[in-house]
Amino acid sequence: MTTGVEFLPCIVAFCCVHSAYQAADAAGRMRIPYPENIIMVHIPCAGRVDTLHILRAFENGADGVVILACHEGACHHILGNIRAKERVERANALLREIGVDGRRVEMRTCAPNDGSRFARVCHELEEKIKELGPSPLRKHA
Amino acid sequence: MDEVKIGVFICNCGDTISKSVDLLDIRARLEKLADVALVSIGHDLCSPQAQQAIRKDIIDNGINRVVIAACSPQLYGDALANLVEKAGLNRHLLSVANIREQCSWVHPDKDKATKKAMVQIRMAVDKVRLQDVVEQAEVEVYKDVLVIGGGIVGMEVAIELSNLNLRTTLIEKEANLGGRLKQFAALYPLQVTPEEMLTSRLKQVTGSENIDALTSAGLKDLSGEVGNFTAKIRKGNEEISRNFGAIILATGYETLFLDKVYGFELGDNIITQSQLEGMLKSPGEIKKIPQSVGFVFDICDEHSRISTPSTLRNALVIKERFGSEVYVLCRNLQVDGAGLEKLYQDVRNKGVIFFKFERFPKVLRENGKINIQVEDLSMAREQVMLSCDLLVVEEKVVPHQDFATLESMLNIGLGPRDFYQEDNVHLYPTSSTKSGIFFAGNCHQDLDLGRALTDASNAASEAYQLISSGKMRVEVERVVVDPDKCALCLTCLRFCPHDAIRIDYEKKTAHILDLACQGCGICAAVCPAKAIKFKDWSDDQILAELEVV
Amino acid sequence: MVNKSVLVLGGGIAGVASSLRLAVNGFKVYLVEREPTIGGAALFFCCKATEACNQCSVCLVPEKIAEVKAQPQISLLTNSQVAEISGQVGDFSVRLIQRPRFVDPEKCTACGVCAELCPSQPNKAIYLPSPQALPYAYAIDKNNCLHFNGVECNICSQECPFGAIDFDRSPEKIELSVDAIIIATGFDVFNAKEKGCLGYGRYTNVLTGLDLERKFSTQGSITLPSSGKAPQNVAFIQCVGSRDVHIGNGYCSQICCKYAMRFAKLLQYQHPETKITIFYMDLQTAGKGFGEFYQQCKETIRFVRGIPVEISEISPDELEVKYEDFIEGKVAKEIFDLVILSVGITPRKDSSNIARILGINLGEWGFFDTQDHLDSTETNVEGIFVAGTCHGPKDIPESIAHGAQAASKVIQTLAARGI
Description:
The complex is a heterotrimer.
Chain A: E1 11-16, H1 20-29, E2 38-43, H2 51-59, E3 64-69, H3 80-97, E4 105-109, H4 115-132
Parallel strand pairs in A: 1-2, 1-3, 3-4
Chain B: E1 6-11, H1 23-31, E2 36-42, H2 48-60, E3 65-70, H3 73-86, E4 94-98, H4 100-104, H5 110-129, E5 136-140, E6 144-148, H6 152-163, E7 167-171, H7 194-207, E8 211-214, E9 217-225, E10 228-235, E11 238-244, E12 246-249, E13 254-256, H8 259-262, E14 270-272, H9 273-281, E15 292-296, H10 307-322, E16 325-330, H11 340-349, E17 353-356, E18 362-366, E19 369-376, E20 382-388, E21 390-393, E22 396-398, H12 403-410, E23 437-439, H13 449-467, E24 471-475, E25 479-481, H14 491-495, E26 501-504, E27 509-512, H15 522-526, E28 532-534, H16 539-546
Parallel strand pairs in B: 1-2, 1-3, 3-4, 6-7, 6-12, 7-8, 12-23, 14-21, 15-16, 15-21, 16-17
Antiparallel strand pairs in B: 5-24, 9-10, 10-11, 13-22, 18-19, 19-20, 25-28, 26-27
Helix pairs in contact in B: 1-5, 2-3, 5-16, 6-7, 6-13, 9-10, 10-11
Chain C: E1 5-9, H1 13-24, E2 28-32, H2 60-69, E3 74-77, E4 80-88, E5 91-98, H3 113-117, E6 126-127, E7 139-140, H4 155-159, E8 172-178, E9 180-183, E10 187-189, E11 206-208, H5 209-219, E12 233-240, H6 256-270, E13 275-280, H7 290-300, E14 302-305, E15 310-315, E16 318-325, E17 330-336, E18 338-343, E19 345-347, H8 351-358, E20 384-386, H9 396-416
Parallel strand pairs in C: 1-2, 1-9, 2-3, 9-20, 11-18, 12-13, 12-18, 13-14
Antiparallel strand pairs in C: 4-5, 5-8, 6-7, 10-19, 15-16, 16-17
Helix pairs in contact in C: 1-2, 1-9, 6-7
């Protein structure tokens, strides 16, 4: 893999409009930079994300997937974030079955007004995926 | 379906976005995308002139889907949807790519920012291509409110609704209205007495044409949804069926003495707060005036807003009425309510002695006396022995026994300690998880009297806000179930957090109640048959967006 | 539409809640705020969630502000103050003074070009009041601006792509006629310097709860002001300026125990090895779900009964806290590297002025008084109501509830009088 060119991971982030989407706005308004290779897919609630969506992202070549949801106990739809967590776990198990590191998919939380946390989470994700290297499912490695 | 023609309108925000994003390059690439009929770059799309121009462009070019790449939809989302509507399109046929807050402001590198902006706009194009129309409609709703519980909070709710000209049915399971207020000996720090407060409220309830108070009555069955509930109410042997637009629960709380926690049983000289209140209320029951009285709390209900105020005011009543020695033993005084710190100081100045403990004091019964051994924290934990004629212990505040029945009848969530309402900031102060059902008072959180009345007012005005016009706006069939795919597995029904799904056994399909649906999309995600389509966030749309990866 | 109008004085969370409740029910609302943005004190507070939401409710503020933006029935009058009020319920005449913002919020898109170019040092004279501000537009701080301080600087007005900046504006008088008035002027934070023995303002590493809010909301974390390192041994001191009759504050501020514990948890979430001690008088742990949160706190936080009387600085990183140890029955001394004073809520300094203009009563501690001493909202003047912390300490959900209650009382009063 080490071709001398820096590995730029492609990360898909499912962002809940009640929290992460607004937190990304807040980060923008505070001009806090974060990695641009995070593809943000907006969703009405973390509970909308299906295992299918997570797996499709990997199929399409993503190196990592994250669901950015409201904090536990702050979901506008009560258990949407808990449901999402269950699906992350299911996707995780399915990935491991086919030999992909389960750490590539995870669930993180942030508040709508917490721009700095959003940026910090994005940096941490990029770091983590960089350590794991490109996804073995990537079409064009 | 007509040919899809997508118009992409890019805002340069006063030529600031082009500093970090190559908009010309983006335009060239967008023009090559399928179905994109028009790409235009504007100086500032939020100005009225620009909006006029967009409208004209949409109409002139026969655009039937719109993508706007500009600042956050949080800022102008509504205005843009209105704009699309004015141009003759359904307001859902719009997708906004946030290339300012989420791109040009955070990615200083022009190449990378341009790449990301392109991804964002492409996702918006792919999404809007598959967007279905969602129409809006107005639905008639009932302007009557059902209030369950005729204590002070329920009465207050009914009175406020009556002042707001809404009709209310107030049901109380006991024979008289008033609830716990009937037992209280005083309402310190308020100057008003419980009798005065009760009389004035009763007068308002009985004097109002808008309030139908049914005592010895209970809810037997409930069906329907927000705006259109049907309740079966049992009063004696009668059964009454009525329609309501909203329901407010004000069922209060119960108290329970936990002998296991205390390690002793109640008796003649060890009584609970409520027993004491009963005695103070009917002085005939007091055979011998106690020379010394001890109060102990923070044992079984450490975080209660009820025990501190009731202890303080009963201690004051005893001190003033009998002049007894009064000791109060507790861990923490909960003085975070209006006037409570002042009341505490007053009670102390009247000679009531307070002991704060870390460890539970020992209680010994001896020759009709109660001896309490407590360590005095202000004196290097020296053991102090207090002798009392009467010991008053706190009770635990617990949910009503009929909570569980009501909960399953109404299908609303229970929160910590089995009180109503989940522990979620977005539901505070009075919303339930289910649209059209509200909570007031101590049935859903721990409140002192002042807070409970504020809560009552809130519940009343939320119900008023919802149904007072007699109409509700609704998005029609925003989420739909495909009857051919639905296997009646009930998964969606179980997962819906807002109780917005019903089963139509005749048509053999689940269906979504438009008024009750709050648009989370959980049902669409859990449906094993993929029979549920959320038109703004359908599976096809999300998967199409993921094609940019 | 009901063709009635209400003046809401103060754009903090309580005033916003009042305005929304009125507007949704068809009332015309004039929301008057003296700062350039609505949102009040809580707009500058931070989220205190760890992995779980700790129910601080600060995120409700931007949520409510967004609702105001979408509400055409509310007219925002920022930078404005009340000068005179006359009349009675159903017919109040109000005169306001609006100080110039020098930036037209209708034209400004907050693109930020002006602030990039502003030569003022160290603080830019043209600034966005908050990332969540409403109106979401820049404003000029006259004291900082070169243009207003004898320098021929017009950079921002020349470079603004929207021509939104105009220096030649003077204060304007606004006359309004309204049916009712809600006062929601909020609170002042207790000035910790009044407690000189605790060393606030003298010792670098003594901060207040408010300082912590600001630091977390702008930086997302906290470091020692003296060295920039992460704090290792932190003390919170409760009841600073509350429950203290000697300084005229004989009430519990109701918010401090909760924010202290939430901050403590947040600090340990970011740096699990941080040791935290909370010095208290009585812990206020009532409230929905808070008892359970306190039980979790007890596992990792040390709670000490007793309020320290004195702090001395041994070195910038070492603060000696002297307190009465009830357990041992002696005066104890302990070293911390960071001390947080949990300052409470006090009445606004200009309360007496507003009370005079409106003819309403002040209560014992200087908050606006209500008729029956309940958490009610009616003042002694019919048609004038109070909402939120200007009536007494309240947390965010309670302020929202109280604001909505005041609005509901306005609707009821006007309905009863047939106005």
